[in-house]
Backbone:
């Protein structure tokens, strides 16, 4: 078995049983402060353009998180996640037009329906492994995209599909009553994303996480060790589809109008590229990937630089990640920064004329 | 159901499309068997070649020279990628090797969109002189490009089969498909054989790009992602048999085009390769025994 993209083993560690030590507490405190800053600082500091962009980042961080679970934790490579996102957005939009249910309920329903859809299509596909699984997800995504192009997204029409091509005044997809404005919706999206990250954390730290790690190392060995590989693979697929479906629901409210051309099959390929670049073994990687995927294009657009440079950069990034840094930017950047810090301190001590070896040189 | 005469023109165009898919599919299978790389950038390098040829054609460079340049460009890019990243990723999983070619696809795609921007709305077209001549069978008009496309598919499939069966290089490729290490131990210059496979695949990518630019559209996105249709044929053949690849490719091309006159289904005609590949894969993966061998699936 070799669907493993990297070399590291990030099995669910047994740390959860012990009392959290000081480093964990510090880390938790730093993350909390960071999140509070994002929730309350960003809407104050950023222009509306960048708030909308950051809402997209929050949405896509869920998508890359789900893909990261599949690729990094279980070793299942999916080339069809944008199609799953489209299903989630479609279901949410249909429900939002058809019912007056509260938004969180709609998100939950969109997640669950997408989960069922993902499992139904995924169950037969899970017989395949590695390259074949990746390619069949690409084929299924291509088929879904064609169907979506014909069916169209709901625009307030009637019937099961909810599409009316002759509507002149298309009503926007509604947002939750507590988050009508763009900054408020941004906070809403970030909170949903945090919940999804916690959901994944709850999985990776417990039994499913350990089972996934075993499956990623070697599926036959996991089977021999008494792990129900089909169950846990399906579980991972269900979790990923659920999260992506919820992300689709958040996306529907964020953009107000949905079009099938917004979900082309090739975006799934780019999505895999940025997820690999961000790093699939850590959840920070999902955030990095979403920033690469949504924030960088907005930034370049603002600067008047063609987005094609970004496509080229993503291509180079994939090659670089696969050949030299399997754990992605989330792993590589801190290491490189530490290396840079060591180099600087060594240079500094040399400049000051001291001959003492710089700290940390022992590695 | 429309009358039969409505379907007739689509048989010809379907066969032509199937021929190009077959040619691409054979290139993909041979490269996969020899090097373990599923070359997802196949469409992108073809598109790059076709666009370079188009630009040269605008500078009044003679047609035959632009076609050669198209094929050469695709071959050089492919060979270059193979020489740089082939050895670096040789020991990795087939999936990693395939994803790496997505990197090349994105680089080429970005470059093409940058250099031959499509936002201006100016449609490009590449037309080969063989479009003008032709003949008719009964009511159906057939142009020479379509004949060439189908013939190229047949010739490449048969030629590759003969090449793999009877030549020394072909035998070496088949040996490497079984086991790279053992083949190297037996004294086969593994790197050279791999380079030959990359070069061959690149040439086929150039030919396919040129033909598809004429038969389909000269557009970076279309050409880059048309490889997915060939990929479907390759998947049905389980990345193994070139005969099966040929048959699947013809079937996909025919079925895709024959759905055009049926109004109820014509919206869904682009699903043909995906549905066939998904069904084929799922049916063939029944009752598969899980093994720990290096040969994936």
Residues:
């Amino acid at each position: 078995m070799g669907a493993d993209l990297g070399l590291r083993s990030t099995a669910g560690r047994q740390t959860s049983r012990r009392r959290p030590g000081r480093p964990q507490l510090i880390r938790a405190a730093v993350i909390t402060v960071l999140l509070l800053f994002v929730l309350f600082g960003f809407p104050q500091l950023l222009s509306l353009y960048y708030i909308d962009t950051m809402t997209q980042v929050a949405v896509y961080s869920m998508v890359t998180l789900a893909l990261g679970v599949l690729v990094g934790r279980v070793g299942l490579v999916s080339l069809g996640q944008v199609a799953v996102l489209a299903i989630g957005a479609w279901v949410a939009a249909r429900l939002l037009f058809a019912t007056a249910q509260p938004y969180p309920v709609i998100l939950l329903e969109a997640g669950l329906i997408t989960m069922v859809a993902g499992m139904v299509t995924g169950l037969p596909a899970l017989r395949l492994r590695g390259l074949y699984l990746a390619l069949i997800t690409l084929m299924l995504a291509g088929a879904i995209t064609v169907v979506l192009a014909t069916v169209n997204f709901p625009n307030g029409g009637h019937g099961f599909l909810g599409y009316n091509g002759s509507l002149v005044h298309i009503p926007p997809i509604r947002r939750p009553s507590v988050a009508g404005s763009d900054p408020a919706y941004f906070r809403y999206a970030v909170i949903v994303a945090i919940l999804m990250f916690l959901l994944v954390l709850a999985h990776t730290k417990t039994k499913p996480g350990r089972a996934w790690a075993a499956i990623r190392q070697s599926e036959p060995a996991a089977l021999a060790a008494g792990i129900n590989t089909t169950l846990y693979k399906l579980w991972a697929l269900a979790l990923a589809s659920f999260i992506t479906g919820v992300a689709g629901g958040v996306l529907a409210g964020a953009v107000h109008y949905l079009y099938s051309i917004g979900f082309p099959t090739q975006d799934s390929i780019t999505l895999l590229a940025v997820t690999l670049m961000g790093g699939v073994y850590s959840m920070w990687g999902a955030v990095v990937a979403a920033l690469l995927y949504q924030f960088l294009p907005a930034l370049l657009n603002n600067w008047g630089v063609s987005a094609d440079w970004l496509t080229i950069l993503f291509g180079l990034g994939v090659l670089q990640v696969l050949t030299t840094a399997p754990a992605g930017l989330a792993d590589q950047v801190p290491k490189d920064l530490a290396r840079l810090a060591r180099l600087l301190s060594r240079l500094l001590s040399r400049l000051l004329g001291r001959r003492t070896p710089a700290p940390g040189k022992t590695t | 159901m429309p009358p039969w005469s409505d379907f007739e023109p689509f048989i010809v165009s379907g066969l032509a499309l199937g021929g190009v898919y077959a040619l691409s599919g054979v290139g993909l299978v041979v490269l996969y068997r020899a090097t373990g790389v599923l070359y997802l950038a196949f469409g992108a390098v073809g598109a790059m070649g076709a666009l370079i040829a188009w630009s040269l054609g605008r500078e009044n460079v003679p047609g035959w020279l632009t076609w050669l340049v198209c094929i050469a460009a695709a071959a050089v890019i492919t060979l270059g990628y193979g020489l740089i990243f082939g050895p670096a990723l040789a020991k990795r999983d087939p999936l990693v090797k395939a994803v790496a070619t997505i990197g090349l696809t994105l680089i080429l795609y970005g470059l093409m969109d940058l250099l031959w921007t499509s936002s201006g709305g100016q449609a490009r077209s590449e037309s080969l002189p063989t479009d003008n001549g032709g003949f008719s069978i009964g009511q159906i008009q057939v142009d020479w490009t379509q004949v060439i496309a189908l013939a190229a598919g047949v010739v490449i499939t048969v030629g590759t089969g003969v090449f793999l069966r009877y030549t020394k290089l072909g035998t070496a490729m088949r040996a490497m498909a079984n086991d790279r290490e053992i083949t190297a131990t037996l004294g086969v210059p593994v790197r050279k054989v791999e380079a030959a496979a990359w070069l061959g695949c690149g040439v086929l990518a150039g030919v396919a790009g040129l033909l598809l630019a004429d038969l389909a559209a000269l557009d970076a996105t279309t050409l880059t992602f048309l490889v997915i249709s060939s990929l479907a044929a390759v998947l049905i053949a389980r990345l193994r048999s070139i005969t099966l690849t040929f048959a699947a490719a013809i079937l996909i091309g025919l079925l895709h085009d024959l759905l055009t006159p049926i109004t109820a289904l014509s919206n869904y005609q682009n699903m043909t390769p995906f549905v066939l590949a998904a069904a084929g894969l799922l049916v063939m993966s029944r009752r598969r025994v899980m093994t720990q061998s290096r040969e994936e699936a």
About this structure: The radius of gyration of chain A is 22 Å. Chain A touches chain B through 52 residues (CB under 8 Å).
